[in-house]
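re: that complex we talked abt at group meeting.

here r the seqs, copy pasted straight from the sheet so there may be weird spacing, ignore it
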Amino acid sequence: MTDAAPAAGTDAATNVEHLTPTELVGATSEGPQELIRRTATPPEALRREVGAVLRLPEGVAVDPSDIDVEQTDDETMIINMGPQHPSTHGVLRLMLELDGETVLRTKPVVGYLHTGMEKTAEELTFVQGSTNVTRMDYLSPLHNELVFSLAVEALLGLEMPDRSDWIRMLMVELNRVSSHLMWMATNGMDMASTSMMIYGFREREMVLAFFEKTTGLRMNHNFIRPGGTAADLPDGWEDDVAVICDTVLVRLDEYDELLTGQPIFRHRQDGVGALSAEEALALSLTGPLLRSTGVPWDLRRSEPYLRYDEVEFDVIVGTYGDNFDRYSIRLNEIRESIRIIRQIVDKMPSGDYRVQDKKVTPPPRGRIDESMEALIHHFKTFTEGFRVPEGEVYVAIESPRGELGCYLVSDGGPKPYRMHIRGPSFVNLQALPLMLRGGLVADAVVACSSVDPVMGEVDR
Amino acid sequence: MDVLFPTREQYIGLVGSRKDEGFEMCADLCAVDYLTHHGRQLPEGVRPERFEVVINLLSLSQARRLRIRVQVPAEDATIPSLFDLYPGTEAMEREAFDLLGIVFTDHPDMTRILLPEDWEGHPLRKDFGVGRVPVQFKGAPGPR
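got the structure back, here u go
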């Protein structure tokens, strides 16, 4: 980063050898991954670096005259926000170059939560795989399970029963509600609105209680599996869902009243962290970030999966691409999700909740007691797993944070040869340097919150 | 979905022309190590190499996707960066470099992104041992 073109990161450490150890922050230093001081960076490299930090090529969005290369380190300072800063929602570290209170350059440093889940996926069978992916985006675990299952089913060429599709839709839409409520809670807390924090968690808990009743767990459900779902919906689920819908809708109006017209809230949201549609597309942003710039791109509408083409809902878009647009999009997406959930309750068909394909689905518990073959079959399914035909597939769904993709390669064995998850948070984080540039540190907290990154998914 | 198999030399030109045709976004970029997967199906004339860089282009205006798979040999694991065409691939290319050791030339900031800077090796390569290497921590006294 300091010298022109560090040919390979393998010898990147040598590029910063001319710095004294104290200049590299010390024992916790990530070395070349960090934002380098101005004095250590020649002007051309700085121009280039500002372009890189802004995640835009030279000449596109960065006007070279805009970059004050004469500025010295005496006037600016680099501070770390994170990894333990509460507003970073996990272990995100933002290196901010500040001129007084104004942010000049930003570099997100990620990886503190990296646990090698893509490597782990290669060691787990397709049956076990959904236990792994569900832990990536821990605020919308069912979306992770869904995208993985859809990818496996696409390779298997399975025809899914009606009811399993509708159960899956019900669960992921409820999950979208809980995830957006969680976002409203944390976003409120980042602006010191602790009452919103408590309210958001309160309503989210209702959804999680329903998840616990249905799947057995509040999070990390492993409920949506290749070949269907783990179980049918519990008795009386319609009543539980109706209560959730009614309550959340009423409370949502209260939050709308609490926040939307609130002058302090509006001052911190309006026009802060604005993005244009061109920038959002260039940076591969998806989800509420892209829709806030006015691009009506929602995979549920544009590339319908499951049965989204059979339900009515609106795609919410913004105009200015600022924090307030992202807030209103998420607020109204909860309303749209509830609209979808009500249609699902009306349309829920009867039938199987998992595919009756002996290869994929283990025999039911009752059969194991009476049939030796069923016992062997059950044992084989869970020890060896099933084989998936050779091939590769990319499946994308709309998670609460944007396009959640799964690129799956199978070599014909019972384990994925390669599983890559395209985490929307990971890509969306690239917008931060652009959103924070020229703003204040206090705005950085709110802008970071409005990206809604989940670090479990960023670092995987 | 269409899948294209350009060579490394054609790669940038092909992606650039597809961008002009309306593929506004590079939705995903990742790499695969085919070391232990022999005889995968490839169209005529494509010589299989150890690594493959896979990108998924997305056209919002036409609601279309396009996958591009580029063969990258093990002895020279480099490929031009897409940064100038799609700046959003910046983090994804760093991730592919970090986990699979593929160097993207002309990338503005080719450093590790998920792993610590002093990590040795590239874990998603198939010859990177699993469970056989003590976990590396900076400054730790080493395995007992």
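couple things i noticed - The helical segments of chain B are 8-20, 90-100. The mean pLDDT of chain B is 85.
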